[in-house]
Specification:
Number of helices of chain A: 7
Keywords (chains A, B): DNA-binding, Transcription, Transcription regulation
InterPro entries (chains A, B): HTH_MarR-typ (IPR000835), MarR/SlyA-like (IPR039422), Tscrpt_reg_MarR-type_CS (IPR023187), WH-like_DNA-bd_sf (IPR036388), WH_DNA-bd_sf (IPR036390)
Radius of gyration of chain A: 23 Å
Protein name (chains A, B): DNA-binding MarR family transcriptional regulator
Shape of chain A: elongated
GO molecular function (chains A, B): DNA binding; DNA-binding transcription factor activity
Helix content of chain A: 55-70%
Oligomer: homodimer
Pfam families (chains A, B): MarR
Structural class of chain A: mainly alpha
Largest interface: A-B, 72 and 71 residues
CATH topology of chain A: Arc Repressor Mutant, subunit A
Largest sheet of chain A: 2 strands, antiparallel
Distance between the termini of chain A: 63 Å
DNA sequence: TATTGTTATACTCTATAACTATA
DNA sequence: TATAGTTATAGAGTATAACAATA
């Protein structure tokens, strides 16, 4: 009937994360994917902070770079952003001089997005950080496993 | 120098997602992980809507079920939630009668979380939906590949 | 009338600061 | 003084509604 022994059966408050049963979450792909994404995003902000790039702007720059003239609507559906939310980002990128909007001559409702030289330089600098950043995030896996993971993700998703 | 032919070199506005170069994003694990997580979360809301479970509450229930008496602070750091944000959810779950808070006798600052019978019933019903839901989300992969993906995610993350 | 882009706005999720009570 | 929990609040991300210009 002793009470103040902080060692014996004191499971409740002293229950540390080490001793918790997490097996259910470990078997839950959705939860593990969330953790993985958090890790990648936190790491991204550290690695690319100096350039002022975010995961969203990095993806936007990359798609415009590889597809000059891409319209905002395609960009939004591709990146899984709602058009109004993308527009807000595009406004900032344009007023900062990283991208340029051209009205399409064929359909004057449509907008064609392009990188300015300043924007092209920024994404080029970002691209140089990409490989070491990915390696760091995936460090616990062998190179073959890293390729397998990326391959499985690509096959899982209809892109 | 022709102009109005909407077929020939009309890459800009007619550029559909089918013809876009997405290879850069496909080689970016962080982006693919984001897409995967979005897919799992959207699917979750569809599948578990009838039970009123969200990814967050599902995880909370599962951890309390497997670790009765777990304190909010451990739960928060485990699920990567800030304590104040978790507290708000716990308040709703308690006032809805799904969980119960006990003050620890050993340390009266500490709180021990438990499921009520009503909460235990809810997570038990949710658990029955879990396997078919995961199978659906991972359908493009073989069972061996599904196991590989989960294994790689677990090895990537320090849980 | 339908589509593209845009603005305005609401809502959810997440982050920070400060307070209470115990230790 | 430090810690666990809580409250209040601010910020970022994401959602819907409505409008202008063009088709």
């Amino acid at each position: 009937m002793s009470s103040k022994t902080p060692k014996a059966g004191a499971k409740s408050a002293e229950q540390q994360e080490k001793t918790l049963d997490l097996s259910a979450l470990q078997r839950t792909p959705g939860f593990m994917l969330r953790l993985a994404q958090l890790k990648f995003f936190e790491g991204f902000y550290e690695e690319f902070a100096a350039l002022g790039l975010t995961p969203a702007t990095y993806a936007i720059f990359a798609v415009i770079r590889d597809n000059p003239g891409v319209p905002p609507s395609s960009l939004a559906s591709l990146l899984r952003l709602r058009l109004p939310n993308l527009i807000k980002i595009l406004n900032e990128l344009e007023s900062s001089g990283f991208i340029k909007r051209n009205r399409s001559k064929a359909d004057r409702r449509a907008v064609e997005l392009m990188l300015t030289p300043k924007g092209a330089k920024l994404i080029a600098e970002g691209a140089r950080l990409t490989e070491p950043y990915n390696r760091k995030m995936l460090a616990p896996l062998s190179e073959a496993e890293q390729r397998t993971l990326l391959d499985l993700l690509n096959r899982m998703l209809p892109l």
